[in-house]
Backbone:
């Protein structure tokens, strides 16, 4: 006899399938929005599929979800490499292990599309191969889950585990604790979250429990981190056993406070939430799924200013995040580049505030003044070298092998993207010094009759392709050639 339509499961599965497809298309690009969308939708789809019983269509959804959950780990592997995270390989290892542990005795494991992806994951070596897996996932079609077999059968509002056995002992059910989302002060948590040290924030956590284990009274969610001294910075959550039958959606809100700021160049704080019932003796298995990791940025530019100008400091934080997202950049090179950018950001801000450079300033004058102001900074000092040989030429400046090319534009107002003609020279110096990053600073000192220039718009990151290599160029435009403000009204 055919099941009656289950519109609730149909709508859940259909809408989540659309969400997964939408997130899948951009999951591998640097912007993390689609990736986060895919993770959340994959998690919710997994929770929905956990309620399904046996059937051909149900198995197709299980196979698809298994492939998606593995692809999420692979996408996170690529993002971790791009962000130069330590031990990024753990995500690839987890994906390979998850693929290896797919139980081939289960009916859904016979799906040809799933097996093709499992074979690719087993042989996977490079992030470039992820595009092929992504394309296969995009082409994966599924029937509508309208007539769904459920793992439980309802009668008069009472849910009874479906079982073909005759034993009087109740069946031990599997329990899934699915982390659905984190909110910080009412906003969804992002890939990287900024918390000001010493400030209290509301951290909200939402989990879904498929079946509450018999005999268990509480579920505890506890943050785990590498340094035990950081463990109490994020709150623990404790949920009492709810009334009724599962699945249950549990939400809790508590205070989070980062007690210590970290340095501008260091990695973000990383926390992982663990879930534990007080008694699982009457439960077959407890599976913990979903995105449980929180990356917390704790740089405090108010207490430890970078350039002395708060608007420039905030912009440099976003520049640093862009550099971290570029694959292949060493963390030390990013740190050294950011030290240079802090110095140049200070010069750019002072030039706008105090009119440091007159119209028609020569390149030699700009180099002398910029060198003096950079070397006056305690974090640069003697490490700033002038006229270092590289690639058969002479660099203007280097800081710990990061090339700094200085140019002047006196004819017209230009913006960072307009100075691409200097990218090849900066790239040549970077390659000659064994770097994949260089800094180009241009004094734009054309005579002006109107205000122009905002420091946040005058510091930009570009990726310059040369041959088979890509070099990151950070452009800093310093403005000059301003008359007295009172002259604008004449």
Residues:
């Amino acid at each position: 006899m055919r099941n009656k339509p289950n519109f609730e499961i149909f709508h859940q599965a259909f809408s989540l399938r659309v969400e997964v497809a939408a997130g899948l298309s951009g999951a591998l690009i640097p912007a993390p929005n689609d990736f986060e969308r895919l993770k959340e939708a994959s998690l919710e789809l997994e929770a929905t599929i956990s309620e399904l019983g046996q059937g051909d269509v149900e198995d197709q959804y299980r196979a698809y979800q298994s492939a998606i959950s593995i692809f999420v780990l692979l996408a996170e592997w690529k993002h971790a490499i791009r962000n130069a995270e330590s031990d990024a390989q753990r995500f690839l290892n987890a994906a390979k292990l998850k693929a290896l542990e797919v139980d081939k005795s289960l009916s859904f494991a016979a799906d040809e599309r799933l097996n093709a992806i499992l074979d690719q994951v087993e042989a996977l070596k490079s992030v470039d191969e992820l595009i092929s897996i992504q394309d296969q996932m995009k082409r994966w079609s599924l029937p509508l889950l309208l007539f769904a077999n459920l793992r439980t059968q309802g009668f008069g509002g009472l849910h009874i585990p479906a079982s073909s056995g005759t034993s009087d002992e109740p069946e031990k059910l599997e329990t899934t604790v699915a982390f659905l989302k984190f909110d910080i002060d009412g906003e969804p948590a992002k890939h990287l979250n900024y918390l000001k040290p010493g400030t209290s924030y509301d951290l909200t956590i939402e989990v879904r429990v498929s079946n509450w284990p018999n005999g268990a009274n509480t579920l505890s969610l506890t943050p785990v981190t590498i340094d035990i001294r950081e463990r109490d910075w994020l709150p623990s959550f404790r949920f009492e056993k709810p009334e009724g039958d599962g699945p249950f959606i549990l939400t809790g809100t508590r205070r989070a406070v980062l007690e210590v700021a970290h340095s501008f160049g260091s990695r973000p704080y990383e926390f992982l939430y663990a879930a534990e019932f007080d008694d699982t003796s009457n439960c077959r298995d407890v599976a913990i799924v979903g995105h449980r990791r929180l990356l917390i940025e704790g740089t405090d530019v108010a207490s430890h200013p970078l350039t002395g100008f708060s608007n420039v400091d905030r912009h440099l934080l976003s520049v640093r995040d862009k550099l971290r997202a570029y694959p292949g950049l060493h963390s030390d090179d990013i740190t050294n580049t950011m030290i240079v950018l802090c110095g140049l950001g200070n010069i750019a801000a002072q030039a706008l505030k105090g009119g440091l450079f007159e119209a028609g300033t020569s390149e030699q004058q700009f180099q002398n003044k910029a060198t003096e102001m950079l070397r006056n900074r305690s974090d640069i000092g003697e490490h700033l070298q002038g006229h270092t040989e590289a690639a058969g030429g002479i660099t203007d400046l280097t800081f710990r092998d990061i090339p700094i090319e200085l140019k002047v534009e006196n004819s017209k107002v230009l913006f960072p993207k307009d100075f691409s003609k200097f990218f090849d020279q900066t790239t040549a110096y970077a390659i000659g010094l064994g770097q994949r990053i260089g800094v180009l600073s241009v004094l734009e000192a054309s005579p002006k009759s109107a205000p122009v220039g905002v420091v946040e718009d005058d510091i930009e990151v570009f990726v310059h392709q040369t041959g088979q290599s890509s070099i990151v160029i950070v452009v800093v435009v310093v403005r000059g050639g301003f008359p007295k403000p009172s002259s604008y009204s004449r």
The chain has eleven helices and 20 strands. The chain has three domains: 1-154, 172-304, 310-489. The two ends are 89 Å apart (CA to CA). The longest strand covers residues 174-184.
